[in-house]
Amino acid sequence: xxxxxxxxxxxxxxxxxxxxxxxxxxxxxxxxxxxxxxxxxxxxxxxxxxxxxxxxxxxxxxxxxxxxxxxxxxxxxxxxxxxxxxxxxxxxxxxxxxxxxxxxxxxxxxxxxxxxxxxxxxxxxxxxxxxxxxxxxxxxxxxxxxxxxxxxxxxxxxxxxxxxxxxxxxxxxxxxxxxxxxxxxxxxxxxxxxxxxxxxxxxxxxxxxxxxxxxxxxxxxxxxx
Length: 225
Prior knowledge:
The protein is of the alpha/beta class and 225 residues long.
């Protein structure tokens, strides 16, 4: 991408309430579609909450009264957001990127896998299981744990929603849902810190930005929407 089309990169400190964030994200996506604003990646953390994607099954909400639950238009099923998890809302114009949704999702996966690689973690994708997974093995056992979720939506070829990258969330909070509808005991949830890595949110942000630029192009500092 040329210098004039650098992608905005914004980070909100502290915790950002979900509904105002979604409203701001959708407004920015509409402005991008109208040619009134540039592309933006917005990094933030939410207070503890569950969101239900368009494929969510009510039975996968195991503890309905634990945290606020929000219906959302993104793809996917139930997921958890909370402190220690880096949410990145990705507002990119796919009219400028080939109008290829499959490639776009694959690029999101490559972005996360590249960031994990900066910490010597091997992230992998699996057919039929959206997101990025980490294999874990020990004497007599093996499992695969999800370390990042992906859920996006397009409107007028502009993306919104995005990824949720587990840095150091309270993993017990995932027990209130069946994450992404996957309940088999050999599949779970992990984070960078759960893997034994002393990674801060700033460390994760730096890795995410470097990997994003390798996949999508140059960024520049921007204000949250």
